[in-house]
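Ticket 4471: requesting a sanity check on a complex prediction with alpha-D-glucopyranose. Repro inputs:
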Amino acid sequence: MVVIERSKLRHALIGCSLGPCLGAILLVIGVPTNTHGQAAGRDSEGHQWWQHAVFYEIYPRSFADSNDDGIGDLNGITRKLDYLKELGVDAIWITPCYPSPQVDFGYDVSDYQNIDPMYGTLEDFDRLESEARKRGIRIIMDFVMNHTSDQHAWFKESRSSRDNPRRDWYIWRDGKGPNQPPNNWLSTFGGSAWKFDPTTGQWYYHFFYPQQPDLNWRNPEVEKAMFDVTRWWYRRGVAGFRLDAVDTLFEDPALHDNPVLPGKNQYGDPNMANLYNTKLPELHGVLERLRQVADEHNAVLIGETWTKDLEELKRYYGEHSNELQMPMDFLFTRVDKLSAGEFRKQIAGVNAAGWPVYVLSNHDIVRSYVRYGDGRHNDEIAKLMAGLYLTLRGTAILYYGEEIGMENNDPKRKEDVKDPIGRLGWPKEKGRDGERTPMQWNSSQNAGFTKAKPWLPVDPNYRTHNVESEGKDPGSILNFYRRLLELRHQNPALLEGAYVPLNEDDPNVLCYLRTYKDEAVLVVLNMSAERQTTTLNLTSQGFAGAQATTLLTTLATHPERLSLSSVSVDPFAVYIGKISK
Ligand code: GLC
Ligand code: CA
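Returned structure tokens:
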């Protein structure tokens, strides 16, 4: 793995190694559709449900604890559905809640067709699904495709003997010699990617922890078994999957050594380009076929795609838009400072690549509140960033707590670290606990998350940054998110409009239109700590009018109208206004 600069943007885990009519007919003849009864439904602009939906990522351990054991659970999520509805969420992506030894907190799955008892039962899942459906909220599950847990029945069989029928479901090889792994590949979580198994005297391959053996996707039986897992969940009502670590599905069968680069990574291993074990072309065949299954259920596939450039990102949509509908654009998260120019560049790029998918942070990435915050204007900056990714053309995925300004709470001492990579890489790599702390519901003890000791400590900022207190404050980050999401759902230009950049040389103010028919929404974002005054001439965009009507703003003056000849914006302020022909 090439180590990405990890100062603020921390967890780039993979590294960057180098027909509407038919839909209508199907509806009429009553072909079963999965969840919300909209077979391949497109709107008048040809957009599908996931293009207008606001997605929200829930890390179930940390969202809401219904039985007070210190760990969040599915019933906890069900209780908070009204909150999510009111916020303006249309789909929730729940990170893995399947049975798991929890070595990687659920990303080591020991049974893909059940719920871990710590999170509840399948009945709890069904209740969550039906309560969500009543509120028009869809459920996206996490599909950990690359590897299982070493406690999965498949792996237990596979490791039991060299001639077990499931032997070839994983990647087993002879070492180069005694105590010598088959080649130089490294685990992205530190150390060799090969583990010797004395039972059969061979090594198995694991891109992540040794407890996460990689599946062999060259074996058609693996593909069939895994695809059937998705079918099973679709029948249970899920509306799609977030595909974990898709970059790593295939490895070079000849096991060529990876090129070694200068320097050492955070675990003290050599830096390496993952040339022969990530992003192999074969993975696109799997994605195409998985997409066919998804299409039968009107489902969406979201990809954890650590692309290094736009060409790679484009490839994940598929040459005929037949792979992932929503490959996540982490290039955007790599702009880890407020830079109008950098954001402009990324937005233009991803707009040209396909339907954009915007993410600011997640359970592997330092929270946006910290990455962009300057320590003095963090709340204003949080609103500024919301004003950016929620007004762009594309689909946004919010990470729980972003809407209240949750910050990272990194462990102070090695002995407190829960995430194994933090223990291994301490102090350079503190792990991902900081961005996974309990959701802050109110200012009572443990932020109202649990009555027990929470599995991770609540961040001290919960006293001011929590759902209840912010709900009462009209100027809070939460209320800004609510108003913005409401606007986004109602305003056709924000939903359907084209993205038109303005004043592209301005280093401080990021400014654009979303144009739709005779209307446009103007977005002005001051990315600097100084007041900025700028002039907007929209004649060449076909809007000669000299005024905007305010829709939502954090400008201190709250003007009803704004004159475009001299637009004066407070530090880090957002202005969103309507312009008509
Ligand atoms: C993905 C997940 C991460 C996990 C890894 C291994 O990168 O987002 O949390 O550790 O895959 O499954
Ligand atoms: Ca619990």
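Notes from triage: Residues 13, 104, 107, 144, 208, 244-245, 304, 363-364 surround alpha-D-glucopyranose (ligand 1) (CB under 6 Å). Leaving this open until the requester confirms.
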